[in-house]
Write a structure and sequence with these properties.
The chain has helices at about 35-45, 50-60, 65-75, 90-95, 95-100, 105-115, 120-125, 140-150, 185-195, 210-215, 215-220, 240-255, 275, 285-290, 320-330, 330-340, 355-370; strands at about 5, 10-15, 20, 30, 80-85, 130-135, 155-160, 265-270, 295-300, 305-310, 380-385, 395, 425. It folds into two domains: about 5-125, Alpha-Beta Complex (Outer Surface Protein A, domain 3); about 130-410, NAD(P)-binding Rossmann-like Domain (Rossmann fold, 3-Layer(aba) Sandwich), CATH 3.40.50. Helix 6 (about 105-115) packs across helix 7 (about 120-125), helix 8 (about 140-150) runs parallel beside helix 9 (about 185-195) and helix 8 (about 140-150) packs across helix 17. A seven-stranded mixed beta sheet has the order 7-6-8-9-10-11-12. With about 425 residues, it is α/β, with parallel strands linked by helices. A hairpin with a 7-residue loop joins strand 3 and strand 4. It is about 40% helix and about 15% strand. It is elongated.
Length: about 425
């Protein structure tokens, strides 16, 4: 172990013998009493020394034998130490400099939320092994997909139909140049462009998409973009065209199978937010049957929704939500059938760009929290926010006894609340 005080937690002295690591109450840790020798020893915990050398340095400072190990143990238990030499999957990611440099801010955040030394890099490396399917490539879905890809998720599949419209364009989502192209193809190109570790940035001045694919074989494996104009398709490398055909076949197979096999998470982010606000239970039957976690997110009218994150058999699902709503409002099923099948008054659905970007960011954050091994607040619950006041509110989606998902028969655990203030650790 090469211990390092986590640099993401800012240090400040509260008084002469007490130091606080971290600013916010959720993460702050107060250490004390800290005498002069102990304070100097803390400065040595920068990741460049192993424990044998730290013991020698501590002895030369006049600290008693065993004090170095005791300090390291207590600081590690308090969540203040990282290990710069963590092995396993972390070692493989450490050797990918371009990719890791793109993810250093994410790594710093993970070091705060995951206390064990070396856990942050391990979690980041684990993301590379995961596969997420995003169903929808509108303003919400495309931004979610690009965020997950940029955050190090190894494979992000995007499913949607039709051509990109001008109102699909948004920051972090589909770019203006994708208007007129197939939505799914444009979204997959966006995912590749967003992925860390790319040495050639597609979309940069003077860089054609075909050139970027040719320079990035790993990205080419995910498919190449369609050129709807037909003028430059012949310029793409043959390898990229073969990869594109293979990816289309994979997408068709995933769509036919319901997208459950081999997926860490499915995110339902349809362009028509009604399908996220009032999801059809039939569309989730395959995910329930295969035990595939799935998260709903979208914008309907002027309301954004994130959740529920459904853990099949354990939390309330789309069927539970439908049963609960019908129990409260007998007219709901009739109106819902009309909304789903009737002719819409406007071709363009309402989707405020700021609201869509907010929903996409929150949904991506909840998804990453789940992929990193946590149970975010959207688990079995839905968060809603409505324009113009933008007040967030949550609603628990309780398992319904008549829903065939079976979640109503499972015991539900209770989360542990935080203390709301700095944690104290004694080093003396």
């Amino acid at each position: 172990m090469h211990p390092m005080v986590k640099p993401a937690l800012r240090r400040a002295w509260r008084e002469r013998q007490t130091v606080q690591f971290g600013i916010t109450p959720a993460h702050a840790v107060v250490v004390g009493p800290v005498d002069t020798a102990t304070g100097s020893f803390l400065d040595l915990l920068d990741g460049t020394r192993g424990l044998p050398l730290l013991r020698d340095e501590a002895r030369s400072m006049g600290l008693p034998d065993g004090k170095a190990d005791a300090l390291v143990d207590r600081l590690a238990a308090a969540g203040l130490l990282d290990d710069t030499e963590a092995g396993g999957r972390a070692e493989a990611l450490r050797n990918r400099k371009v990719e890791l440099d793109r993810l250093r801010a994410d790594l710093a955040s993970l070091s705060i939320t995951h206390r064990k030394p070396g856990a942050a890099l391990e979690r980041l490396a684990a993301r590379r092994t995961m596969r997420v399917q995003v169903r929808g490539a509108g303003r919400v879905g495309a931004a979610i997909a690009s965020t997950l890809s940029a955050s190090g998720v190894g494979r992000v599949d995007v499913l949607d139909g039709g051509l990109t419209e001008a109102w699909d364009v948004g920051p972090g989502g589909l770019p203006a140049e994708s208007v007129g192209e197939r939505r799914d193809v444009a979204a997959r190109l966006l995912v590749r462009r967003s992925a860390p570790g790319r040495s050639v940035r597609a979309g940069a001045p003077g860089v054609r998409a075909a050139d970027a694919v040719a320079a990035d074989p790993a990205g080419a494996e995910a498919g190449a973009p369609d050129d709807m104009s037909g003028g430059r398709a012949a310029e793409r490398p043959e390898r990229a065209e073969r990869a594109e055909r293979a990816e289309r076949a994979d997408a068709r197979a995933a769509l036919a199978s319901g997208g459950g096999a081999g997926l860490s998470l499915v995110i339902v982010a349809p362009r028509d937010g009604l399908a996220a606000y009032a999801p059809d239970p039939a569309s989730a039957e395959r995910w329930i049957a295969t035990g595939t976690p799935h998260l709903y997110a979208g914008v309907v009218e002027a309301t954004g929704v994130v959740g529920p994150l459904v853990l099949p058999g354990g939390t309330g699902c789309a069927g539970c939500l439908a049963e609960e709503r019908t129990g409260r409002d007998a007219g709901w099923p009739l109106m819902l059938a009309q909304w789903r099948s009737g002719r819409r008054a406007s071709v363009t659905p309402a989707c405020d760009l700021g609201l869509a970007t907010t929903v996409a960011g929150l949904a991506a954050a909840h998804a990453l929290s789940f992929l990193d091994g946590e149970l975010p607040a959207s688990t079995g619950a839905r968060w809603e926010v409505t324009l113009p006041l933008l007040d967030w509110r949550s609603e628990r989606i309780a398992p319904h006894p008549v829903c065939p998902c079976g979640a109503a028969g499972e015991l539900e655990g209770e989360g542990m609340a935080g203390t709301g203030g700095p944690h104290d650790t004694m080093v003396g």
